[in-house]
Specification:
By secondary structure, this protein is mostly beta strands. It contains 1 helix and 14 strands. It has one helix at 5-27; strands spanning 45-58, 63-79, 82-95, 98-101, 104-106, 109-110, 114-124, 132-146, 152-168, 172-188, 194-198, 203-211, 223-237, 245-256. A 10-stranded antiparallel β-barrel has the order 1-2-3-7-8-9-10-12-13-14. It has a two-stranded antiparallel ribbon with strand order 4-5.
Length: 269
């Protein structure tokens, strides 16, 4: 039996790179998990772009905050059932006005888009009866959004899900489970005073749908995908002033590459 030394050497180098990315991911605290939620076949790269909007309630004064994130993701599966990746994005925050003291109203914060970066980790079990798997997803980012008066909201946010994933032949995957979401950060007000904040509702329900179309015009070894994701806490609501409160929606699209080494097989398993 002939051994492919070049392929083995490339595999070892890529796995070392992925280990470094994994360490960076673990250090970061983002939050759209489906990009795609389905496990990418081993020895493949996935590239995606996404739009994510999330409404959270921060501080003990229960102030609504909306996060808009436009981002790109690159991920890789060094071995079967494990994927790691990096996220680069632009994040914009809006925070509702509130009463800081009698007759003292803090104006609404409307930030500009600022740089955000982070990482993600995806784990999956083998498909039982080629239909159902257990998954674990985690994602985290650092972010900062400022306005023209040098006020800002920044910090880190992270999300994690442990749930079930169902394969739908000819379509894609549906994933669902409990969702943990956490924000921790610092803000500077219009008066220059700094303070810290975090979200008060951390547990949500989560569902994601991955669609893997079969596009004849593309190389059969490259698989496009479209993912839609939704999460909500028990406190979900909306109002005429703040449309998105205690829920999130994300739409992602991208492609999964052909296999980089080893024998070829389906892109999404």
């Amino acid at each position: 039996m002939r051994v492919n030394k070049t392929g083995d050497s490339m595999k070892k180098s890529i796995m070392i790179l992925c280990f470094v990315i994994l360490c960076l991911t673990a250090a970061s605290f983002g939050a759209n998990l489906a990009n795609p939620a389905a496990q990418v076949g081993d020895a493949r790269l996935a590239f995606g772009a996404s739009y994510y909007v999330n409404g959270s309630t921060i501080t003990n004064m229960e102030i609504p905050m909306i996060m808009n994130r436009i981002g790109a993701r690159a991920s890789f599966s060094p071995v079967k059932y494990v994927s790691v990746g990096v996220d680069l994005a632009a994040v914009q925050l809006d925070v509702e006005r509130y009463s800081a003291a009698p007759y003292d109203i803090v104006p609404m914060f409307e930030g500009k888009y600022g740089f955000s970066y982070g990482g993600n980790l995806k784990l999956a079990s083998p498909l039982l009866f080629n239909r159902v798997a257990v998954i674990g997803l985690a994602n985290g980012n650092f972010f900062r959004s400022e306005n023209e008066l040098d006020a800002y909201y920044g910090g880190k946010d992270g999300a994690a899900v442990i749930g079930m994933q169902v394969k739908i032949p000819g379509f894609g995957f549906i994933s669902a489970g409990p969702h943990f979401y956490y924000i921790e950060g610092e803000n500077k007000g219009y008066d220059g005073v700094k303070s810290t904040y975090s979200n008060i509702n951390n547990l949500r329900g989560w569902i994601a749908v991955d669609y893997h179309p079969h596009v004849i015009a593309l190389n059969e070894k490259v698989q496009p995908y479209l993912s839609v994701e939704f999460s909500m806490s028990p406190k979900i609501k909306t109002s005429s002033r703040v449309r998105v409160q205690e829920f999130s929606v994300a739409v992602s699209m991208g492609t999964i590459s052909q296999r980089l080494y080893g024998m070829d097989k389906d892109a999404a398993e």
